[in-house]
Amino acid sequence: MPNKQVIHPMVKLQQKVVSLVNSEIIKPNDSIGKIALLFGDQWSFFKSELVAYGFSMQDPVSDILVVETWDD
Q1: What's the pLDDT tens digit per position in 5-21?
Q2: Which of 22, 41, 50, 62 could pair with 28 in a Cys bridge, judged by C-beta atoms 3.0 to 4.6 Å apart?
Q3: pTM of structure
Q4: Helix/strand/coil (H/E/C) assignment for every residue in 6-65
Q5: Which InterPro entries has this protein been placed in (predicted)?
Q6: Are 65 and 14 in contact (CB under 8 A)?
Q7: φ, ψ for residue 26, nearest 5 deg
Q8: pLDDT value at position 16?
Q9: Which residues, including other chains, have CB under 8 Å from residue 53's CB and lie 6 or more apart?
């Protein structure tokens, strides 16, 4: 049976943000709060996680992109 690795939810968020930046839908210097509308129902979870990691909604999106590991 193959070993299926669970991806941390914040890694999924980070991958989506990278995709949005690469698609030029958002800019790296846009505030994190700007992505709220793009995540709909999932945003309240991601927002609470980001705050728990010490982010504010005014921080630039680029701050999410430079995180190397999301430890619990």
Answers
A1: 778 899 999 999 999 99
A2: 62
A3: 0.85
A4: CCCHHHHHHHHHHHHHHCCCCCCCCEHHHHHHHHHHHHHHHHHHHHHCCCCCCCECHHHH
A5: DUF4327 (IPR025477)
A6: yes
A7: -130, 160
A8: 94
A9: 10, 67, 70
Average pLDDT over residues 44-58: 96
Q: Read off the tokens for 31.
A: 């505030």
Residue carrying the six token digits 């989506």? 16
- Contact (CB, 8 A) for 64 and 15: no
Question: Residue 42: exposed, middle, or buried by beta-carbon count in 10 A (0-12, 13-18, 19+)?
Answer: middle
On the CB side of 43, CA atoms within 13 Å amount to 11
For the chain, give the percent of residues with pLDDT over 70.
93
